[in-house]
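Much of what follows relies on a compact textual record of a protein's fold. Here is one such record, which you should read through line by line:
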Amino acid sequence: QVQLVESGGGLVQAGDSLRLSCTASGRTFTNSPMGWFRQAPGNEREFVAAVSYSGGNTRYADSVKGRFTISRDNAKNTVYLQMTSLKPEDTAVYYCAAARFIGFPYDSLPRRDFYDYWGQGTQVTVSS
């Protein structure tokens, strides 16, 4: 059984930093991308970032580019999201996602239906 478990969320002030982690169990996602999405109350789940298996390729939503960094440690089967200069509009539940697809299809990465596995989410709240 595949599980993705996120951690690292919390309540911070605007301008602070936070690092989210997501550890996969049940399988390894060799040569497959992993990503982060977020969902604020009343909004649809939106793409945040994705990273290739090697970590050498990434894609970010425009709203987080330059502030967030995605990375992964394949030895630990873990993907990270380092968030800096946080804003109140970053407040959301953050979800980790993993795909079975082999490769890094740039145009598909923001699509929710591209991913096969999801975590339960971790809350990030940024106060002004």
Observations:
- The radius of gyration is 13 Å.
